[in-house]
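ok trying this again, last paste got cut off
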Amino acid sequence: MPQIIPIKDLKNTSEVSERCHSIDEPVFITKNGYGDMVIMSIEAYEKMAYMNDIYEKIQQGEKSIDNNRVMTAKQSVEELRSKYEI
C-alpha cells in the first residue's frame, strides 16, 4: 500500500528518511490534500531505474522482432566467424 504523508511531515527529516528506507518504495507527499511530490531512497530509485532499463531493452527486442530484424543463432555465429575470420 502506498505511503502518503502531508508536506508538513517533511520537517522531521530523520523519520521521513527512515520511512523511505524501511518500505523500499516511493513516499507520496501531499500539499493541501493534493499530490505534490514523490520521495524515495536511493536504493529504491536505483532499483526502479534498473527495471526501467530492462523494460526498455525488452521493448527494443520486441520491436526488432516485429520489424523482422532478427536472425537465428546459427546465422549469428556464421556472421561472427566470417567477420573475425575464425
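PB: full thing came through this time. The longest strand covers residues 34-39.
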